[in-house]
Amino acid sequence: MTFNAWRGGRATVALLLAVFLVGLGPRLYSALLVGWGWDGPGTFNLVNFDEGGSCRAALEGFDYSTFVGRQTIAIADLLGAGPPAGVAGDEMAVRGYCHSPEHIRVARVYSAITGALTPVLLALAAFCLLPGRPAVGLTAAALLALSGFHISESHSGTVDAPSVFFIYLFITVAIAACTRRPRWLWAAPPLLVAAVWAKYWVFAAFALAAALPARLGETVTRGWGKGRFCAAVLALVVAFGCLSNTDFPRSWTPLLALCYLTVPWRRIAPGMIPLWMLGPWLGLLLLQSGWVAGYTMGDLEGRFGSSYGAIGWHKWPRNALNVPLVIMVGLGLPAALCIPAGIRALLRQGGPWRPWLCLLPVVVFLLFMLVPAPVTYYRHYLALIPAAALLAAMGYWSWLGERGRRWLLPFLLWPALLAWDVESDYHNDPRIELRQWYQSARPQRLLFSYYVQPPRLQGVAQGLFRESYARADGGVLRQAQYLLLSENWYDTAFANELNGPLTHDLQRLVKTSPFNADFYRRALAGEIDYLAPERVIAVENFMPELLLHKRWYGTFQLFVGDLHIFRVAGR
């Protein structure tokens, strides 16, 4: 099926509409229900504290991208729910508006719609890349529409799902321009700006490689075999990863030598020799920039103790593990297992390669997240999921061929069940059950960690727990009757998406301190004599991906996790 044939294919248009509606349903449902009604009809509790960040930036109350926030504020204005006059610049007032249910509802619906449109864009891109195989595009779109991870990011009023939408809108238009619609190139620059501005995703600029002259590409690749070229890229990535690591020694000469050893100097074009000679040095100079160093290395200290750079060498296994974990949970185990076959099918099909170069930003981003990335919250990997869905669909159909029609529904049933399990975490949030415990226990004095969000009840003295309260034999902490700990905060003491699997060295943990981490570990192990475990309200899952993740890495969600309630013994 060519791009022109797609335009006239009513059945395909109907299937794309079905994909959009299937994707929109759960996203919109959760956007309108999650957080509402916890403390009675009409009440609202913010679940994801990253929501509204772009709105806050647009109103000069936060340092972040303003692109999405300007749009959600404009929509809210049209609906009569805009910000109060004179609120701009007042940080607390801006936070109050951007976190209000009126604005969050608009931001979430905006995110849900852009999230549901992204699978459609993925299908259109696949139709252009694989014109004779429409089943691949439709399968990839269905996988993305049913992705529980993508759904969970699309029902939140953050920039993550809209950012991925604008990234793939730009990529899709660029692919269409390379294949069937050269005139669409005029739309590429403004769409590139949107793709970068939505979340500072600078990797989108690498798609411009598709616009370079073919002769230049031939000159650059002359003398390189596939294996040699991959080895050179790997050497550059490893060198860049080492040089951007806070634990790396100052001697960088061996790394530069490693890069030079991979270059086939006798076979490459003479004009490329200066570039390959200067390339590693230019990268080294680039790392001296404070902005680049911060983006790739992270700081050693931050607001909550250690910062992202403190992880040091432990960053390597963390980054290498996070990528497959996110893809496995994002698409489901069966789809993830099809990705190697999809890569093989892509390499075997041959050219033309220019349209596929439009996906180069995703490849560079993957390499960045695999090696040097200092900040690795799962939501940061979201841009990888559509491309992974495309490779999974390619692998599925190349492996099964015509037999794929018979097994397609069971294949898609798995991610649908996984999506149900992921979304159930939000609709069965432990903080809802916490309200029932309040009614039965009638606490009088309690302390709670970040993100617990207990109900505000008259006559109950409660406050935010600071780890310093546990110092000096817990003198301050013992004045409370109960201590409530949220997994989303104490997981800084354990293996998780930021710490990775190596957690034996408390100095290497992210967003904590050795004292804080030790306190949380001992408290949850029942080793603190004045803390008696009272109750655990846990996140319950049934799909193997989430069960395995919870066993080794904790709850997959960032802002929904187990709650541990301790009774505090007085002096």
Automatic annotation (TrEMBL):
Subcellular location field: Cell membrane
A single GO molecular function term of this UniProt record: pentosyltransferase activity
Alphabetical keyword list: Cell membrane, Glycosyltransferase, Membrane, Transferase, Transmembrane, Transmembrane helix
GO BP, sorted A to Z: lipopolysaccharide biosynthetic process
Major subcellular location class: membrane
Ranges that cross the membrane: 109-130, 135-151, 163-179, 191-212, 224-243, 275-297, 323-343, 355-375, 381-400
GO cellular component, one term: plasma membrane
UniProt membrane topology term: Multi-pass membrane protein
Key word Transferase present: yes
InterPro entries in the cross-refs: LipidA_mod_glycosyltrf_83
Protein name according to UniProt: Glycosyltransferase RgtA/B/C/D-like domain-containing protein
Protein species of origin: Parahaliea maris
